[in-house]
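Can anyone check this?
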Amino acid sequence: MKQLIECVPNFSEGRNPDVIQQITDAIESVEGVKLLDADPGKATNRTVVTMVGEPELVVEAAFRAIQKAAELIDMSKHSGEHPRMGATDVCPLIPVANISMEETVEWAKKLAERVGSELAIPVYLYEAAASRPDRKNLASVRAGEYEALPEKLRDPVWAPDFGPASFNARSGATVIGARDFLIAYNVNLNTTSVRRANSVAFDVREKGRVLREDDPITGKIVTDKNGEPVRIPGMLKGVKAIGWYIEEYGIAQISMNITDITATPLYEAFEACAKSAHNRGMRVTGSELVGLVPLKVILDAGRYFLHKQQRSAGVSESELIKIAVKSMGLDELSPFDPQKKIIEYNLEHTAGATQKLVQKDLVAFADETASESPAPGGGSISAYVGALGAALATMVANLSAHKRGWDEQWESFSQEAEKGQEIKDALLRAVDDDTAAFNAIMTAFGLPKDTDAEKTARKAAIQAATLEAMDVPLRVMRLASKAFPLIREMVLTGNPNSVTDAAVGALCVRTAILGAGLNIRVNATGLADKALAAQYVAEANKLAEEAEASEKEILGLVKI
């Protein structure tokens, strides 16, 4: 699974479309990075850009954009309403999928080091990447803005984390860091009253509301011994919220920024608003997401609402998304298109992208396999057969979770179904991965070999592609093997009317493992590192033997 990060650099230019275009062109020059948005503001004289992709590619795109901004923006002539200290004022990296905050911090530091050394721009690290606690907050780092930089940089306390401790009059300084994903989220109410919407916002936001004597609205504010207002904390950590009226829709909303999605998942924000609104005589009618969100945010919401209904959450991604959208009314004000609103899906559906094998219907997939093209071949089919085997076991788990009279077992079967879905989805990804690995071998063999340098490069490419063509089927074997315990459990404890379905799953999984093993053996002959090839073959043989034994045991348990 690909690691994905988002990057949201803020550039100190919001009025000259030519400059903005050149900066975004620099970003789009990096293949594999998708520019999601460029939002210029004339009053602020600032443009906020959003891009997403794999970490190394995003860091490269961010560097090129910072470099272009340094060429085109002269901070000595800049003015605008928004605080700023550099041509590229701030550049946060945000983990989106399959990457930890710690890993994201390391990428932020790599970007900061390169900007400092290659562009001679002072760079400060902030948020999760901050080198010291007093630099964590952006406002603290940016205090005094561009105009204060000459004096600030002479102070050893404010020596930059990277780059020269000298004033760069043209580019100023840049703040680079790593932070959590921020979700802009609005919840709709069946009222037009901003005051009542604010009452809900104050209930849910982290900082809550000030404590007043007697009357919560008009009463005298209670203060502490230092004269500061005493606050009643809100329900949700890492959430900022306010009520407003949207004339376009004729309703009031609670407008939220969820700054910590680990502390407050999307569904918790929705539920908190619904609870507060109900307590105040109102009703939440739906909600809307502003911008894009990671897939996990929506899937977690789908699982939550299914569990709330005591239904199995071991269903497909599309079903989880549907449940989340309908449960939170994300389509009340406008259609919710997952291909546009979910980051991972948005990336996959770029214009002109080749359709994946797993996106084809059954007939098209079979026709593609039967064509004169050598791919997809046995490796992709093995992965797909394994996915079908895991899917059958998952089906039995879901049927068991919903079986009349088995209500007390729904949660345990749901957990089994979720395991099956994970295995199935991973094997489906391997269908296209195997074909991609084969195509990489063909590409490597087609490289020029006229000079010694070309021969060396071609040989290295062939070996790298061959190793990948062994890694994918080995992954298929390992993944498919994980399905056997689930299948066995479903044969023993699942819905008795579906025992044979689980048994067919065992047949499929065994086929997947043996088929993938054949791919490993044939590709091992082309690997120059014979010791490494022998390791792959040995593991493949072991997994194949275990698969034969597991299939035999499971079939022996089926009594018909």
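Reply from J.R.: I decoded it. The mean pLDDT is 92.
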